Amino acid sequence: GLGSEARAAGLGKAFVNTPTYQALKRRREQADDPNGPDAYMADPQEVWARAYTQWVATRSQAPELAGIIQRGSGVHGGYRYWGKDEFAPVADAIDQIFTAFGYMDP
């Protein structure tokens, strides 16, 4: 739809500006194996998959899902998920995309 490219660019910007993504990027750049787990974790499709998972967990407010996300956040969680505060702009960007496509009410 009209403006979907801009919204997607906003989502990409929201991702890359997070400390979690920056840490993954550094780990990937420093890894011995360019195709190893750090490269996989920083792959844009994998980043989107984890962001969508975290978005569902956040928006559902299910305690079980929140616990999974919390355990996978930060350095001890292998940077699989974002901390609550740093994920907020990513979640907002996902909201905007889903609203634009009519999957969510404004």
In short:
The protein has helices at 4-16, 19-30, 37-42, 44-60, 63-71, 84-100.
Rg calculated over all Cα atoms: 14 Å
**Count, helices:** 6
Unreliable parts: none
H-E string: HHHHHH
Structural class assignment: mainly alpha
* Overall mean confidence score, pLDDT: 83
> What form results from the Cα inertia axes?
globular
Distance between the termini: 16 Å
Percent helix, as a range, is 55-70%
Number of strands: 0
Query: Biggest β-sheet: count, sense, barrel?
Result: none
What portion of residues belong to β-strands?
A: under 5%
Question: What would you say this structure looks like, in words?
Answer:
There is one protein chain. This protein has 106 residues and is mostly helical. 70% of the residues lie in helices and 0% in strands. The chain contains six helices and no strands.
Task: Note the topology.
Blueprint: H1 4-16, H2 19-30, H3 37-42, H4 44-60, H5 63-71, H6 84-100
Features:
single chain, 106 residues, mainly alpha, 70% helix, globular
